[in-house]
Amino acid sequence: MDTQFIAEMEQVILAERDEIIKKFISESEDFRRIMNGMDSKDFGDIAADDVATKKMEAINRHDSNRLKQIDGALSRIHSNRYGRCLHCGARIPEDRLRAIPYAVYCIECKNADEKAKRMARA
Ligand SMILES: [Zn+2]
């Protein structure tokens, strides 16, 4: 795989990582504000805050999954395994990597995986 393309993807991935970390920081500031505000409120307000906290946790879970994928992609870049399907070892097309820079499966394996999941649910 062409090193210039990989360098480009690394920049994209690093930028996305920065974005998520910035979001984490601003969310934890919101979180602190909610927690600080709780002291002055009566118990009736706590339920609403609890909902806000749960919602924030859900967002963080989504972001922390993405961060894990991003870190995985970065480590694959550093160990020269980037752009290869984890399952069959085939090259992941550049178009797919541009769309999802931290994709780990080629389209065939991804489709097979989704099909298997659908079958498991049925
Ligand atoms: Zn594959």
Task: Write up what this structure looks like.
With 122 residues, the chain is an all-alpha fold. It has 2 domains: 1-82; 85-122, no CATH class. It has helices spanning 3-38, 46-78, 94-99, 107-121. Helix 1 packs antiparallel against helix 2. The chain is flat, with a radius of gyration of 20 Å. The mean pLDDT is 86.
Give the SSE layout.
Layout: H1 3-38, H2 46-78, H3 94-99, H4 107-121
DSSP helical segment count: 4
- Outline the biggest β-sheet: none
Please report the distance between the alpha carbons of the first and last residues.
38 Å
Helix content: over 70%
Note the run of SSEs as H and E: HHHH
List low-confidence stretches.
none
Report the C-alpha radius of gyration, rounded. Answer: 20 Å
* Total E-strand runs: 0
Ligand set: zinc ion
Structural class: mainly alpha
Indicate the proportion of strand residues: under 5%
Report the principal-axis shape.
flat
* pLDDT averaged residue by residue: 86
Domain module tally: 2
